[in-house]
Amino acid sequence: MSKWLVDTSKNLSNDSSFTDCVIIVGATTFKCHKLILSYASEFFKRMFLGDFKEALSGRIYLEDISPTTFKIFRDYIYTYDKNNLNECTTQTITDLFVCGNRWLVPSIIEDCLNILIERAKSMKVEDLIDLFELGHSFDSKSLIKEVSAVLTSKHYKYLFCDKVLQLSYHAFSEYISVTAKLKTEIERYKMIAKYLELNGFLDESTMGKETVDCSIKQKSGDFENNNTNLKKDETNEEQMEIIDAESEKPDCQRHNETYVQGLLGSINYTKMSGDEFYEGPGKSKFLTQEAKYEILYKIQSRRISRLNVLLNQYRAM
């Protein structure tokens, strides 16, 4: 936008002679032009053109934004001068990025995104994790990619700080994946277990799958030991009751179980030492006893294989 047009638009924003709508943020009112708002934002355009009371009254109440931030937003859509954004705090830029996504303003999304990506290079790890969450909240793949690059290249020692435990479950799952190559399996397990515990995934409902698995195996054992007293159709009925109980779980419970299983399934337990596995997953309720025995067997087998290789190398010397 040319300097003349910027100056003219700035004058227009300060001149209330031809304003035709009012934006109310808290106790502060902003006189605006419907044309300017509609041109900048698909959200405001639909509101003014739709069958809403705001279209008739010309008064729009906005929540979850401060008057200071809205004034910066208003000045921006009148001038599109992104240089003013560079003077804003990172928190304000974040708020404007959120507003741009909610109100469908592509230009301010892009300008704020570029500023956030540039500032990410010098941010602390806690602030980067906040940006990581922000990127997931609005599916900003470029923000997620850039923040992940800074985290893994400059802050790999502090990737599993307590701030990670505050991530939403979608963002946490992605974070565990992004940092997978920089942390040991036991470190990843401990972080996942702590996250699941602190965020309420370890109640009885989310542990249902293990309970069902154990119940099925216990029932099967009973049938085998007492097959002279039970008919085949009775066995099927018992098993079907267990399956029915599983299918009747609420969707949220099944979703939680799937999420927990997905996180734990991302860990390669056989890369742990025997002591690590015993003190961590071995004492948890996440795995069935049968799974624990299987994993310990594989850990021990790998250890024996490595010892055999070393022994053969020693003999060949």
Written description of the protein model:
This protein has 317 residues and is mainly α. The protein has a domain at 187-202 and 255-316. The chain has 16 helices and 3 strands. It has a 3-stranded mixed β-sheet. The chain is elongated, with a radius of gyration of 29 Å. It comes from Drosophila virilis. This is BTB domain-containing protein. Residues 19-79 form the BTB domain.
**Gyration radius, in Å:** 29 Å
The share of residues in extended strands comes to under 5%
Q: How would a textbook summarize the main sheet?
A: 3 strands, mixed
* SSE succession: HEEHHHEHHHHHHHHHHHH
Helix content: 55-70%
Keywords:
single chain; 317 residues; 3-stranded mixed sheet; 16 helices; 3 strands
Task: Please give the structural blueprint.
Blueprint: H1 3-14, E1 21-25, E2 28-32, H2 34-40, H3 42-49, H4 53-57, E3 59-62, H5 67-79, H6 90-102, H7 106-120, H8 125-137, H9 141-154, H10 169-178, H11 185-198, H12 208-225, H13 232-247, H14 251-265, H15 274-279, H16 289-316
Parallel strand pairs: 1-3
Antiparallel strand pairs: 1-2
Domain BTB: 19-79
Protein name: BTB domain-containing protein
InterPro entries: BTB/POZ_dom, SKP1/BTB/POZ_sf
Give a nutshell description of this structure.
By secondary structure, this protein is mainly α.
